[in-house]
Amino acid sequence: MRDAPASTAAPGTVSVPSVTPGLSAHAEQFANGVADDFGDLLSSLSGYAELALECTNDPHMRTVALVRLRELSARGLALTQQLRTYARREPPVLRVIDANEMMDAALAATTDTRSADIDLDLRCNVAPAVVRGDAAMLQQVVTALITNAHEAMPAGGTLTAATNLVEMPHDAARTIIVPAGQYIVLTIADTGVGMSAETTSRMFEPFFTTGPRRTHGAGMSLAMVASIAAQHGWVIGVESKVEVGTAISLYMPLAAEAVSFVPGLDDQSIRDTMPSRSA
Q: What residue ranges do the domains of the chain occupy?
């Protein structure tokens, strides 16, 4: 198994903000974000519905309109799920899961949205990567991180998806504050536009964006990631550098059941947790 290379991005972690919705400081941003996303969604649904009604004599265009209606409906359902998750209305169903399997499932689910100019670098440096958590929620988290990485690379680049086993405290992650012990670290890294320190400090706020446009639901995706991590007691680490890229890592305690899954676990070497491109 290969060690992941050291990151070229400036090290640091993000203090994930409180995930309790409705705080006065964020109320206007949150409400406007929800209104914008659902407004755009409903406008698109209305437009394609009109197109479907008008194309009664054009089966091809009618099919195109119906397919788009189905896709937009799925986006609306996804946004609703993100809002529910953020509001902590659905407690996690904890069981022993393999983080590698959740990462593979998320990569498969986002294959169609990955540009041909984006290369995939998959590094499962520990197998199985056994943690306790809600499988569906972990897959949601990884899917959101992958989608966010795709959007950060409009001109193409490399998406790195990695799992590592680390012993904390660890010199390569000095700023990550977690209880001592062994952790599965799942990292999604991109070689995209990167973020300034100011942007990084706000990236988990609901509907916070620096871009002129965003896809439906994108404004809630990282807020949902923070909410799910908080529910599980997982810790998020972020490294980012403008014009170099971003690496987001999820620190999840190694499940006690891993002893029966991973032979020779005590001999597992400590891995670097932040894959990234060369500067």
A: 24-86, 95-267
